[in-house]
Each structure stands twice: as C-alpha cells, then as structure tokens.
Design goal:
- The strands form two sheets. This protein has a six-stranded parallel β-sheet, sandwiched between helices.
- The N and C termini lie far apart (56 Å).
- Strand 2, helix 2 and strand 3 form a beta-alpha-beta unit.
- It is of the alpha/beta class and 289 residues long.
- It folds into two domains: 175 residues, HUPs (Rossmann fold), CATH 3.40.50.620; 94 residues, 2-Layer Sandwich (Pantoate--beta-alanine Ligase, Chain: A,domain 2).
- The protein contains ten helices and nine strands.
C-alpha cells in the first residue's frame, strides 16, 4: 500500500494505474473509518483493479468551528484499516496541500443547488458547497475512475451525482448500502461521540424508519408517513428532531402525486448529545388504504 501526501504524487500514481490498463476505484473519506467504509473498499475491490482512498477532514464543509475541532481523527487506525482492506493507494494530504490559500477560502468553489437545497442543505448552509468543492478537486486529481459513496449520507450521494452529471466529470458514482450495527444504528464516524445512553437514544432513528416503511407499505400518505416517523423520534427523551421527510429519491422533493408502487426515500436527522445523526431508507408505497 502506497501512502501519498501531495497532489503531484497522487495524480502520478492514479495516472500510472490507468496507463497500465487498470480500472481505478476511488473512495473519498474524512477518516475515522469504520465498517461502513470497509464495505466501500470491498465494493471497489470487486469492481476495480486498483483501490484508491483519500483521508482528508475538509474544513470548508463545516459551518461550526467546534464541530470541526471535535471531529474524530484516527489516522494510524485508518491506515491500518485501509491496508487490511487491500487498498493500493491512500491519499493523506494536509489542508494547505488541498487549499494552498488556507485559512483563506479558495477563490473558486462549487455552488450547489437542486438536490442540495433542502434538509441538510437548508440546516447547514454552505455544507454541500464545501463538500462538492473538495470532491470535485479530488476527482480532478484522481482522474477518470469509479467512485464509491455510502447511502447513509443519501443527500450527499445525490449532490455528488448531480455535480458529476452537470459538470460532465469522468467519474462513475456508485452508491453502496448503509451498514448498520447489530442493533440497527447506522454506522457513522460520529457514533464514537455518543455515550452508552446516547447510543440507546439514537436507535430511535432506526425504529422511526421501520415505522415509516410499514406505513408506506400499507398505503399511508406521504404526510402520514413523515408524521409517523417524527413521532417515534420525538417520543425519545434526549433526541432533538431536525426533520422527518419522504422524498423522491431522484429529485429530493416531497412527491405531490405519489402513487402505489412509487419508490420513495425516508429521511431523518436528529441531534443526540450534541451529535448530529442522519439516517434514511428506501421504501415503496403500497396500495391505498
């Protein structure tokens, strides 16, 4: 496994892989790796010849300096997981390697709209602009590849797909299923910030999704499904609900004329012990009751 830290090294390594007729599978991460990331590495290994990963905590997608400061950083453990997963290339740049002008923002950034406008985009202004800026930069440095993202951050996945389509970036974006702990909690780098009691409270998100999926199956309306999910989280002392929504998985818009058989995405965001947690699940609307 090669660990590289400069733009020039990374570009040369990925160019060399393609020159040898290897398909490059790229997994961009912010570190604090867990089994959800491992599933992305495994998916890249199955589909590609060379597995490349980046580890970079992107400061410009954090609106809260305190959140950035407390984001877990576990580089030694992350590199060990990358090696165990069979990664071939790992990019670990410094902040100034990615943004030479830092702490000044780069003069050119991505502005996101469309699927980025609601939910996380509305609650965290600038978040998706910062995420899209670094992902586009990493795609540019990596070159044509297949890139793997977890569905746990579903809106982020939609934003990346939109950006790739709109800017004609030569990257095939693959979404991979959410990986969960045995009790149902979606794996997240932020879970380590939860106490045992906080972990228990956080399970309300998974329970809410199960309730939402059942409501969809029996033919409840979109509003009824969202309300059913919200009630589950709001009933849990210690959980602060940000939103519970049912959206079209392609447009991230609440469907106005939903019909039985339509696919929807159930979205949830809540705060537990000061930690923002996201979860989602696909569902199919059932027959009208």
């Amino acid at each position: 496994m090669e660990v590289l830290s400069t733009r020039a090294e990374w570009r040369a390594a990925t160019d060399a892989a393609r020159a040898a007729s290897h398909r490059v599978g790229f997994v961009p991460t912010m570190g604090a790796l867990h089994l959800g990331h491992r599933s992305l590495f495994d998916a890249a290994r199955e589909r590609c010849d060379v597995v490349a990963a980046s580890i970079f905590v992107n400061p410009i997608q954090f609106g809260d300096a305190c959140d950035l400061e407390h984001y877990p950083r576990t580089l030694a453990d992350d590199l060990a997981m990358c090696e165990a997963a069979g990664c071939d290339l790992v990019f670990t740049p410094s902040v100034t390697e990615i943004y030479p002008s830092f702490p000044e923002l780069p003069a050119t950034t991505i502005t996101t709209g469309g699927v980025a406008l609601g939910y996380e985009g509305a609650d965290r202004p600038g978040h998706f602009d910062g995420m899209a800026t670094v992902v586009e930069l990493l795609f540019n440095l990596t070159g044509p590849c297949t890139s793997f993202f977890g569905e746990k951050d579903f809106q982020q996945l939609c934003v990346v797909r939109q950006m790739v389509r709109d800017l004609a970036i030569q990257v095939d974006v693959v979404g991979c299923p959410t990986v969960r702990e045995p009790d149902g909690l979606a794996l997240s780098s932020r879970n380590v910030q939860l106490s045992r009691d906080g972990h228990r409270v956080a399970l309300s998100l998974h329970r809410a999704l199960c309730v939402g999926a059942e409501a969809a199956e029996v033919g409840r309306t979109v509003d009824e499904i969202a309300s059913a999910m919200a009630r589950v989280v709001e009933a849990e002392s210690g959980a602060r609900l940000f939103y519970a929504a049912v959206v079209d998985p392609l447009t991230m818009v609440v469907p106005v004329d939903a019909d039985p058989g339509d696919e929807v995405r159930l979205l949830l965001a809540a705060e537990v012990e000061g930690v923002r947690l996201l979860d989602n699940a696909g569902a199919v609307l059932g027959p009208a009751s």
